[in-house]
């Protein structure tokens, strides 16, 4: 059974940094793209960043230059380094991964492409 577990969220002041982790279990994801999404209260879930199987990231314009995605395939873990955080980054952050049929496909910025989701980790940025 595939499971994704996020960690690393918390409360931080504007301008601060946080590093989120997403540990996958139940299957190896080294040949699959993965992604991060976020959802703020009263808003729809939105794409943040994705990383393909070779480690290339694709970022939403709102986080480009501030967030960095990476992965450690040996640990089946994906990371999101967030810098220069803003109050508008406040949200629950979710990691996501696709089904096995998506092997070696580049991930997309659409939630429906992903089949597995973590429980989310809260990030709160105070002004």
Which descriptors apply to this entry?
127 residues
Mind explaining what this structure looks like?
The structure is a single chain. This protein is mainly beta and 127 residues long. Helices cover 0% and strands 46% of the residues. It has strands at residues 3-7, 10-13, 18-25, 34-39, 46-51, 57-59, 67-72, 77-82, 91-97, 116-117, 121-126. The strands form two sheets. Strands 2, 4, 5, 6, 9, 10 and 11 form a seven-stranded mixed beta sheet that branches. Strands 1-3-8-7 form a four-stranded antiparallel beta sheet, with no helix packed on it. β5 and β6 form a beta hairpin.
> Mean of residue pLDDT?
96
Q: How can the largest sheet be summarized?
A: 7 strands, mixed
User: What would you call the shape?
Assistant: globular
Structural class: mainly beta
The value of Rg in angstroms is: 14 Å
Query: How many distinct helices?
Result: 0
What share of residues is helical? Answer: under 10%
Terminal Cα separation, in Å?
Answer: 40 Å
What's the helix-strand series?
EEEEEEEEEEE
Low-confidence stretches: none
| Beta-strand share of residues | over 45%
Number of strands: 11
């Amino acid at each position: 059974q595939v499971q994704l577990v996020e960690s690393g969220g918390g409360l931080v002041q504007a301008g601060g940094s946080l590093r989120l982790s997403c540990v996958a279990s139940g299957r190896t994801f080294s040949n699959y793209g993965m992604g991060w999404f976020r959802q703020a209260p009263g808003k729809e879930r939105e794409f943040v960043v994705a990383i393909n199987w070779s480690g290339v990231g694709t970022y939403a314009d709102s986080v480009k230059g501030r967030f960095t995605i990476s992965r450690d395939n040996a640990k089946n873990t994906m990371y999101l380094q967030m810098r220069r955080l803003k109050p508008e980054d406040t949200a629950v952050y979710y990691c996501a991964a696709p089904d096995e049929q998506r092997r070696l496909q580049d991930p997309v910025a659409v939630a429906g492409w992903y089949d597995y989701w973590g429980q989310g980790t809260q990030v709160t940025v105070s002004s």
